[in-house]
Prior knowledge:
By secondary structure, the chain is of the alpha/beta class. Helices cover 46% and strands 18% of the residues.
Amino acid sequence: MAGKLYLCATPIGNLKDITPRVLETLQAVDLIAAEDTRNSMKLLNHFDIHTPMTSYHEYNKVEKALTLINQMLEGKNVALITDAGTPAISDPGEILVQKCYEAGIVVTSLPGAAACITALTLSGLSTRRFCFEGFLPTNKKEKKAILEDLQKESRTIILYEAPHHLVRTLDELYEILGDRKLTLCRELTKKFEEIVLTTLENARLIFASQEPRGEYVLVLEGRSLLEFQRERELNWQETSIETHLQQYESQGIPRKEAMKQVAKDRGISKREVYQYLLNLETQ
Length: 283
């Protein structure tokens, strides 16, 4: 009988945040796959856990995933942990999860700390709708494309950033997104936890004279829905109602529904859309 993969959330700072269920699982499994075995050894030693450990990280995630899957197919149970927080979130663990499902191995998650959610709840910004981008790519072209997409994003945005990239990222965000409310979070759950409610513009001034220390979670205000709606309405004014309707119909949307959506986009009544199309037919 095949073993199982356990995704075990570990503390992001305060060791007391680990759950009893995670501790029991780390004791009981046959093997622990850790992002950095040296870092994780401190955690295991603190809780007197002596389960064998192996490395699983960004640079061996594909070949090591196959090794771990073979072990699980032989009946071994494996726990996956990351340096801090929940595995598979902005983490190579997502590859192992995918490969496990392909191999028919059962995967279960033991919930716990996640820096992105912790920062969001502390941000003072809207938590009803949010998107998580993790670390932005290092490739300039790819990064620019993502930032341009985020410029239109109306949900609260969560990003991770390393200290040596923070200033450049703040500059790029300000350049493309303009000034927005921003909450900077570092040392979450630790003794010197720091939460700074500011703006993109002010944050750039702060770090012009202050060196960033530690990894940051950036929680950024989304674009105003009202502003976005007004811009969409202005853009549609430059397109004829006929072309606007065709765009929806080309997606397989029935004509009645398409007319309703056109009216909504343009801030007019459905009757006005119908009358416009009727006039076209009689010309």
